[in-house]
Amino acid sequence: MFFGASQNDVISVSSLNRMARDLLESGLPPMWIGGEISNLTLAASGHGYFSLKDAGAQVRCVMFRNKLAALGFRLQEGMQVELRGTVTLYEARGDYQINVDSMRSAGLGRLYEAYERLKAQLEKEGLFDNQRKQALPDHPRRVGVVTSPAAAALRDVVTTLRRRMPSIEVILYPCQVQGQTAAQQIAAAIAAANQRQEVDVLIVCRGGGSIEDLWAFNEEPVARAIAASTLPVVSGVGHETDFTIADFVADRRAPTPTAAAEMVSPSREAMQQNLDLTRRHLARALGRLLTDKSQRLDYLARRLQHPGEKLRRQQASLQQLQTRLQRSLQQGLQQRGWRIGSLQHRLQRQRPDIRRQQAGLQHQAQALQATIHQRLAHSRLALGRLEATLLAMNPEAVLARGYAIVQNAAGQVVRSPGELQLGEQVQIHLAEGITGARIEPLHGTQSELPF
């Protein structure tokens, strides 16, 4: 028996859930609980729904709008928090949950810390730089899809490509997109696509989910494989609000798998519209060209002449040109004849008188000869005067007249007796040689010199 009910008593599900809620709320007082936020959903009503988990378990939580508005920070996926609430049960679904009254931050969660750490590392290495991102092909023939064969994302991609451009061939590179080995399988699929080189662009995608569900796309092997890809890569992971490391490394980020398919494929309708517009422009251009050519043909037809008439006109023009040429030649020859006669007349007038020039030249030669003889006579006289002057000034001529030059022992010329001393040896230069002498007193006195 339970709560006094007999064996034949039957209660409704609502009654059961109400009893369970009463037991939880009365048996467990409000308490502080620590854990990591996961599966966060912020409803349009303003209420917040999430799971609080640790390494071994998780529990659903709800934080109503008035409590959430008073919170001093914004809830984020992966946050490590400490919350105070009442353990209860949501009767409509029978969900065991915590009604959160207050919350305080306990630091970032393990997954969020790993996410931020890897993001910072790859950003520092330049894997997010726009310079390394490749352009997508305008008209791909084959599109590769890296995802699970059972994923709804694959159906979305294939449906979108068939709708937009049925001629595009889709090649699947199957892999797990969730679980412990998902990251290695995704990286291997990307590497296989690059090795086979059978597609023009690669879509890496999966549907939405919690941060744990999408975690494979936040792991380093996937980021490295996308960065090393020679094929352009479009990342379409989760929903529009989900951002993974793969989104930052990929050449393009699409908010959903469907958007990724739209991003890599041209629209058949848009291409058809452009083709129709081009066809109309071409038709108008051809119409204008035909009209212009028709008018040109009519103009040329009016200018067209009979060959015989054209030959007669050309023959008459040729005859006229021949007449003008003959007249021009005759005038030219006549003008040149006049020119030659004028030049001959001028040449006769400019012809020199050779005889008169020869007579003048002979007269000038005689005058030159006389001038030369006269100059030579004057030069001889001047030379004689200079020679006499030189002979008169020649020291040897003076010596020949009986004079002598006296030099002391230092070789200096003695000009005064006062420059000599008794007993000093001197040299005497005569006209016919050199002799030596010694200074002695004159008349037996030491005060008087011989000179």
Automatic annotation (TrEMBL):
Domain annotation OB-fold nucleic acid binding: ranges: 11-104
Cell compartments where the protein resides: Cytoplasm
Pfam families named among the record's database cross-references: Exonuc_VII_L, tRNA_anti_2
UniProt key word Hydrolase: yes
Keyword Transcription regulation carried by entry: no
The EC number(s) this enzyme carries: 3.1.11.6
Major enzyme class: hydrolase
Domain Exonuclease VII large subunit C-terminal, chain residue ranges per copy: 127-435
Molecular-function GO term, any one: exodeoxyribonuclease VII activity
Keywords associated with the record: Cytoplasm, Exonuclease, Hydrolase, Nuclease
Catalytic activity: Exonucleolytic cleavage in either 5'- to 3'- or 3'- to 5'-direction to yield nucleoside 5'-phosphates
Similarity field: Belongs to the XseA family.
Assembly information from the UniProt record: Heterooligomer composed of large and small subunits.
Role: Bidirectionally degrades single-stranded DNA into large acid-insoluble oligonucleotides, which are then degraded further into small acid-soluble oligonucleotides.
Name this protein carries in UniProt: Exodeoxyribonuclease 7 large subunit
Organism: Vogesella aquatica
Lineage: Bacteria, Pseudomonadati, Pseudomonadota, Betaproteobacteria, Neisseriales
